[in-house]
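Loading example: each entry is read as two labelled lines plus one structure line.
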Amino acid sequence: MRKRERTVIVILILLTLFLSGASLCIGSFPLANEDIRRVLTGRLAADSLAYRVFWNLRFARTCMALAAGMALGLSGAVYQTVFRNPLASPDLTGVASGASFGAAAAIVLGAGSTLEIMNGAFFMGVLTLVFVLALVKMSGEGHAGSYILAGIIVSALAEAGLMILKTLADPERELAAVEFWTMGSLAGITWSKLFPNLWFILVPLVLLLAMARQVYMLSADEEQARTMGLNPKKWRLLLLGLTTLMIASMVSLTGVIAFVGLTAPHIAYFLLRKRGRGFLLTGALCGGSVTVIADILARSIGTAELPLSVMTVVLAVPVLAVLLCRRAPRRGGDWQ
Amino acid sequence: MTENKPGEQVTICVRDLSVGYGRPILHDINFEAKSGEIIGILGRNGCGKTTLFRGLTGGARVFQGSMTAGSKNLAKMSVRERAGQLALLSRSAVPLSGMRVREVIEMGAYAHTGFLDYLGRRNKRKVEGYARLLQIEALLDEDMGILSEGQCQLVFFARTLMQETPVILLDEPDASLDVYNSHLLFTGMKELTDNTGKTALMVLHNPQTALRWCDRILVLAQGTAAAELNLHSSGREEIQAALRILYPEIMIQEVRAEQDEKITMCYFRRRRCYDDYQSVCKTKDPAGGV
């Protein structure tokens, strides 16, 4: 059993590295392999076009694709485990809907500058969690189900707000910008834009991976977790906080990337055949690979760049369909 | 873990305890347990046995009284410290499908295992040891989702032992076990209390199980501890009187078994209630009925 776990993780790491390498070599600007080699060995001036395209555009973009995918895959795996629900995705607390609302508000009501959109999306994304927690607190119970229901309520509210903003928007420019943002894209990513958001993605990512043990234990019910020495309320709050911080930072840069967070944990379960040790890391790596592939396809198919969510959905749907059909009855490990 | 000599040290002590949720369900509970003892808690459905355990582990509200484990106040402990004193085998455990049995048992070690020990799988041998004790070694690499309810219960019992606490609380541990598996469970518990000085508190439904395995019995009725019984020093009459608080017609008998071991048995006489049924049916309905 332990062998399988290790094999899967090693293969996925190699695959992710390979895909990232491919992503560095592919793009609309013609960079020959020769150029890339010269950039990497430092034999090309720092102000040459090739150097800037490679480091500032491609490298930044690949880093972002990888970080975004891993963040989505990991938070999907965390939520599906903690809430014992195969439908849970990073948007469980409405963070993506909230962020979309924030971005749309910046575009329609504000000036729509990049910085404003980023901040609007980030703060509204984080705010959704505050609302969700307030609702759960008001309900008086802390059951897993209350979080899911509260998330649906907050998410619906944000969607309604988004619709109002869309009707107010100027259909020529603003509406198009809002629509484009909600489909996700890595086209505008540059090295300078990555910071400080990249830290807000990477630090929670590492912390969450280190908390795997607590995540698995929280999938037992509250009484079990407590009598084994894990304070369920405290840890659930911490996990929700870190995940939301990570996803809000990511979404505010890339826009909404659909389906990766839901699919990656299912692929991880298919590969590992369990949801214990190694599941979170596998989920993160699956998410990273899927997003990097989707980004490569988005910018190499067709003349204009396609929205990222189109590609992630196109990739995820067949995978999910295959996994659904291969699900033998009572193989064990399935949620009721 | 400290290895106590049986019968010397008080491991858990409860004084004037009132416990419940919105309002108290149990009040004025007093008992103490020494290392190496097995204490049975008997009571009818809904009398608050599980609530007592929840009070001890922090899942119910304590209105009054004190609870100490070792020499420390339980109510003032953090969740993790408390889990170092008390382990609970509860009835509400979800089967955790998708996890391996091995991983589920290992979870029990959380309170006394650091991050690096977890990464290094330092508890592997202990997990296997407890699996051997309960004869579930063959299941270690299985998925929890395919186990039967009884097998799950043994896995959760192994996880409870994995906590290595001085006191173990068992809430109807034999509820879904077949006869032999419950024998394994109680033998395992008895061996551990005898050899390592652990204390076990067990909520039981079958008085026969309590008579067979416990040193003392606490009878819960009308929201309080109605009787406390030492099975080693009490005679047949005394035991029968105490148990009849709960089970009015119970009969107690002492039997000599192999090697002159004395076993206390209990049974109910057959009750003739068909006449009661008929007497009600045959009565004419005074209102003329529909």
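Residues 51 and 59 of chain B are 8 Å apart (CA to CA).
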